[in-house]
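ugh ok so i messed up the first submission bc i forgot one of the chains. this is the corrected input, ALL of the components this time, i swear. 1157 residues overall. if the numbers dont match what u have on ur side tell me asap before i send this to the collaborators (the ones from the other lab, u know who)
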Amino acid sequence: MSEIKNIRDQFIPKLKNDLSIDQINEIKTELFGKNGLISSKFKIIGSIPETDRKKFASDLNQIKDELQNLITSKISEIEGKKINERLEKEKVDITLPERPFVRGKVHPVSQTIDEISSIFSEIGFSVEEGPDVENEYNNFTALNTPDNHPARDMHDTFYLDENKEVLLRTHTSPVQIRTMLKDKPPFKIIAPGRTYRSDSDQTHAPMFHQVEGLHIDSNINMGHLKGCLNYFIKEFFEVEKIKMRFRPSHFPFTEPSAEVDIGYEIKDGKIIIGEGDKWLEILGCGMVHPNVLRNVKVDPSKYQGYAFGIGIDRLAMLKYGINDLRAFFDCDYRWLNHFGFDPLDVPSNYRGLSR
Amino acid sequence: MKITYDWLKDHLKVSAKEDKLLEKLTDIGLEVESIENLSEGLDLFKIAKIIKTEKHPNADRLKVCDVDVGNKEIKKVVCGAANARKGLLTVYAPPGAIIPKNKTKLVVAKIRDVTSYGMLCSESELNLSDESDGITELLSSKYAKNIGKSYFSKPSFNLIDLSITPNRPDCLGVRGIARDLSAAGFGNLKPEKNKKIKSNKKQTLKVKITKEKNQGCLSFGSCLITNVKNTESPQWLKDKLISIGQKPISAIVDITNYVMIDINRPLHAYDANKIDKGIIVRNSKSGEEFTALDNKNYKLDDGMCVISDNKGVLGLGGIIGGIRSGTELGTKNVLLESAYFDPRSIRKTAKKLNIDTDAKFRFERGIDQLSIEDGLNKAAFLIKEICGGEISKIDIQKIKSYKNKIIKFEPKTFEKITGFKISTKEMIIILEKLGFKLKKENKFFKLSVPSWRPDIVQEIDIVEELVRISGYEKIKIENPIKERSKNTLNPTQKLFHFLQRAVASKGYLEAITWSFTDSKYNDYFKEASKEIKIVNPISSELGVLRNSIYSNLVMYMSKNLDRGIKDLSIFEIGPIFYGSQPGEQNTVVCGLSAGKKSRLSWIEKERNIDVFDIKRDVIQTLVEAGYDIEKFYIDDESPNYYHPGKSGRIFLNKGKDKVAAYFGEIHPNIIKTLDIKTESLVGFEIFMDNLKLPKKPLKDQKTTYSVSDFQKSERDFAFIVDKKISVQDIVSVISNINKNLISNIKVFDVYEGDNIPENQKSVAISVTIQSLEKTLTDNDLEKTNNLIIETVENKTGAKIRS
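and heres the new structure output, hopefully the right one now
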């Protein structure tokens, strides 16, 4: 017993010295190698008299564990130290710039279209589309604007042929016609898209965006129209209260027709929507004219409803404080970068329209 | 339509303030576009007398005048008018005054070294007449006592500019506006006090409307006034016209204008002596010509409605009169015309000849057919009153009589459309005030529509009148119900949104550019497509519909590079056009990337952006959009605007679909010709309409899930192969050997040059071999190994590198 105790007493102080990994490994071999001091003791367990054997084995194991643990912890202590030394050397200036990244952006008009779609989705509208090139019938005649009607002067039209039969749509209203010809009532759609008129100045661009709305059912009246737009405008501008004014107007394809103004004021050079005593015209709407319904084979004595048309670019300008319409289409990277939206900013009902 | 409250009061008994009027006008659909105070600052214009003139020391044509401006003040004014002379009474404008004609503000100015304090004004500058030759001459007998007083006597009212919608011709007359206001409870319409002509004299000029197809004149009333003395209009008439921004000309012209504005009844005055025998209203013949009052010569087509005499065309009915028969100050005998022309005919002619006049504007919207006599009565009496003379009987020729339209109206329709109720009594009051005649028949009203309302033809028009006059604020808000029975977006629309945001998320700025473009740019990218011209483009640079988005995107990329940014990626998703018929368009996502990767980076090696960067963007986008990269097939055929050696096209499914996308470097010739200043320009086009929508929705795709936890082994191979064999082919050969065993095929080296025979290349590929069913033995692995080598060698002619 005392012999193995001696081993212990001899090696424990040794292991407490400042040792290198090699030195520890030497000690390890000396103790636990094939003929190591401890190993050889295990070999003689069999020769120990029966009465002492159990205790001997137990003591030996205990000392073995103790020494082994000491060696292991000593090794990990040294290794830890070494790693720390290495890591110290590896230290970088973490303030150096990260690897370069680029950020893409979604155009404010696209974002606004998604916002609009999200709002109307909630109250059951689905999205329809139509071609940019239209025939004269869908763009005008079917919409109760026959040739030689002065209302055609309100639209400066781009034509693709001398006979003026094919044109770039001047509004998204022809999508109403296409939708109603294609399906059966009820209809509840919005149709965002590109529209074209041949004027161009600070406030007009030859191409712009509109969203058309159409809701036809057996009992849709002007109260529903007012409710729908009131809801939309409040949601879109993300304000609690909105001042809205319906004003009688005239469009050939709706009757009665209205233009809608919203209240605003200018505070510190910025437009604040929903307050103040100034009025801003933002859309045109009305009850779909019975002639239009007849043109698309919908019986006006059974079905009625409303339609509206909103300038998307203008909505975007108002909401996001953009002054110049022309800049939308100028493709200046500084502008796109400033007014564009992160592609992860998908407007949605539960997350909200905007951050 | 410009009016003043003052003029309205000729027809409306009312005491409300002007701001109430403005509100009411807008409330009933007569939108107030602007309000202008014409009289503001006019009090500054003083009656003054020139007391001395001297020649300007430095200018032959200028004079330096001493002007008595009242209150014993003498001002030095430099003046260029020939009639500026000692003793002349004229109108003086001090510094600070704004000249009505050109709206310029006067300042103290040095004119050729002589300081001028203000200006002496011509009639034209004061908007009094067209007389611009010389300064205003005021009658000494009338004005001598008023030196120093304001020239413009009474302050005029605000000029109210209304935007009248095209369906309301009746409101192009002040009376029509007054009628609408009275119906809405704003004042009471005064009864008309029209005197009727009682004359025994015959209208001696014979008028004939020819009966022919498409005759544009349905009725022609006339009245001859003989022995008149055309003169300057009296002050009240001048004031009236000036108050709405019109210029007085001569009494006869002013009177016809006055009647037109007052009751929307266009008239035309002829010098009767200049008409050869009589008037014939007929269709023109091609080639006929005449000189109109705008001093332009017009060549006519067949079938335009003309007023003519024996000598030929006098004027275009309802559009513009001719010089030959125009009235002048010397006119002795006047023939007044008050006619009805068909709006379509008017519009067709005016459009063809590109003429826009006040009369045309009114006739094409529809004039009250029963106002012919009223107009003649009103104008004839005024002419007699102001110019003297004798009035003849009224002569009316017509080829069609007018009958009031009758509409059946059921009161409950109102609530059905508007969602709110008004009483039948209220309805009757409104409609009667608007001029309808009502007869009750059971549940219906039989309404006789007033002749001045061509816009009202059916029941819905009556609903509009009632709701407009009762007020849109009465419409109750019905809140929308939050429920959805149909998907908001269809799968194609979802794909559109997905592609848009997927590309943006790869560092591209989304642009929206015109659907039209410059044919010069378009030519580079249109390939075999047909050029689609816009007949009336806004400018020649925007003359064609784009056959490719590149035409715009390349141009704007170039502009941005010129702005000084060096590395930029932009994209657009939108239509391109392959024909000029509706629907001949495709939706394309087009991206363009310029410059370098990691420019001036302390950590990354600088390199030009290249075709494999753009390939990653387009492939990743397609994969994210839900397409299986395992099925993609790429070859090197691409349009000519790409670098022929560094571009390609992508199919989602080999042999089973149309081109999904092109990608590559833009052809160096294009970069050079268009002078695009960049190190590298690469782009892609994804053709959305060629992308077949996934058959299974995502929820169904997710349901099959199988992975293997058995040991996997990675093996590397290097093949020497003909340069023409594409790496894609080798990879596809390997992947087709056994899809259950072989996966994750990676190309980790491609090498040509030393140690490799000419026209050959070395391709190093790593594959993962793993079974779904068991742990593979060495033997299994070896078998697969050999199979790979054997198959690649057999199918591609490659040799394994030893």
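quick check: Chain B touches chain A through 98 residues (CB under 8 Å). that seems consistent at least. The CA atoms of residues 55 and 226 of chain B lie 49 Å apart.
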